[in-house]
Fold these 3 entries.
Entry 1:
Amino acid sequence: MWAGSAALSGAGVSITGRNELVQVTLDTFIEGPQLVLKDKEGYSAEMGRTDLVQTKTGKEEQTPAASLVLFDKGRKVLWQAP
């Protein structure tokens, strides 16, 4: 039995598993497609356009739609391509 929730809005679709163990979000709000997979600790994988702030320079940028970014629980980039 699934005890999660699902939401559909103009910005996208969000599916949350039981006790928020897993969250899957398809978002079109940030000027392009984005799929986010997030666990209860805050680690996430974001495919598609993602807003980033470069730690060294503080410069804000947005990744292309054909990108994948892995974040730790503090939203620090662990890995990204391209």
Entry 2:
Amino acid sequence: MEVKSSVSLLETKGINTRVVLAAQEFLREKFKANSKYSFNNPDIMINHCIQVMDIAVEIATQVPDCDLLVVSLGALFHDIGKAADETPEVLKERHAQFNWSIASEFLDGIQLTQVQIEILKNILFEKPDTYETCIEQKIVKEADMITFMKDETLQEAFYAWAEGLEPGNGKTELQKKLDKIKKLTLEKSKELAKEPYENMRNKWGLNNTTQ
């Protein structure tokens, strides 16, 4: 299933898309400045984050009372901590700790309510205690899972990285990513995941975990 343009969807909902487009430019600048945890290719993480936003907005439009601006910004910045000037080892384990410090450079310059700020902190710090109660956080996380299944370029870079750590490890790590389909709880997420799941499973010869 093809995901609709998130900007077009946001415009129909009355969201200020200039803020979202500015956030995308901020994202590009940060990853281009430091791409060592973007498989030394900034476009991989830039495209990933924008795709997560597209899918997250598609899901969020089906959820009543969901803050679409927060979902958009949270999706765009959910991995921006990986652009921090730290070692890959540190970023692998702790990138969420850097999400807020980098994203706040942009967020401090726009008008957000205190409620919106708290929700964005839930998303960017990946707070486990708010995951089930914060719908925007759940939407971004599920969109992130789906996006990996959809993005063959990211899969190939991830596979090469995992193989570099230990030969034979690449397929094992891809299977773990695919298995995350079982964690999807929102009906729209499940719908959007069906085709990417099958495509990824067939491409890499992975096990079917939905049966």
Entry 3:
Amino acid sequence: MRPRTLALAAVLLAGGCAAWRYKSGGPVPPPSPALAQATPERRAAALFYSDLGPDAVDVSAYPPARRRDYEVFLRVCSRCHTPARAINAPYVDRAWWEFYTARMRVRARFHGDGLSKKDLRSVLDFLEHDSNERKIARAAEFEAVKSELKRRFEDELDERMEKLQRSAPPLGR
């Protein structure tokens, strides 16, 4: 097999597995009317279902310290990816956030964008508070959004696969 054909086969297999996994998960609740569609650019760049969700949080009811932490979160995290990735991620425990931000801290340092301990603490404080407010206290609402984002991401993967299939040369040539 040629390298290009092998790569296409790997992509199709991975996409098929992802589609099977999400389709076999049972009925999907109806989409939230308040959940806006991601722009075509964001859909094309999405690596995770969470990338397709809202990229902002209404923090007006949060304590002043958490609102300041939110500003740090937006400034720091949007250097490398859309804030939607963290806002819509399924993680709720501070230990998980510490795990993921440790990797990102290394990446930031590698790219010359160091992340201070103070900024990291602010980001973690915001993510922990926000997780408690939106993902735990309103779990059913968050689960509905998460299910819809997964469905949309599945549709996006299907579109990507169809595009790859149309652009690939026929096998056996």
